[in-house]
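Deliverable D5.2: sample structural annotation.
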Amino acid sequence: MSDKISIVAFLLIVSFQVLFISLAVLEKANKLAVFVFFVFTMLLMIYAYSKVLNKIRVGAISFIRGYHLILGGFAGAVATYYLSINLGLGPVIAAGLVGTLVSFLSVFKNERIGEIPAVAYCGAFVGMSSSMVLENLLVVSLAGLVAGIVFVIAKNVFGGIGGKLGTMAFISVAITVFLTSIF
């Protein structure tokens, strides 16, 4: 069961990346350079993902046991957005402050607390969103919860690969924007 979930998480992440790149190409479909970039990027992604598929670590997914991770994504997103928008610090300083503060949680030797800095930093990436994308703290809260859920689902996918937290944040914001646009 957990093998299938890891593969599904992997395929969802790849699908979002392919969709994003495809939409960028379709927006500028009449330019040859954009098309060549698209093909080159797809070839690199196929090569990279073929190497990564062999390294997927399988672990059981439990949302009950992962509630602290879901709350960590929520807290990171809300804190960063609040510092950035409401206090006017800007997204980079706000995310840096949140990331620095949650990094001190790693001094605790508790395994569950030690997992929180990564998901909170993923939430911080969510909180860096513009107020034109995520309009208010309620929407940011939803996006942070989605980031926590995505983190729980995909935490054993792409271990040691750079860009994982940013990709999860992008997926979370995309899902939240989609959900808020239809409701």
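Annotation notes: The CA atoms of residues 52 and 147 lie 22 Å apart. The chain has a mean pLDDT of 80.
The annotation will be released with the project's public dataset once the embargo ends.
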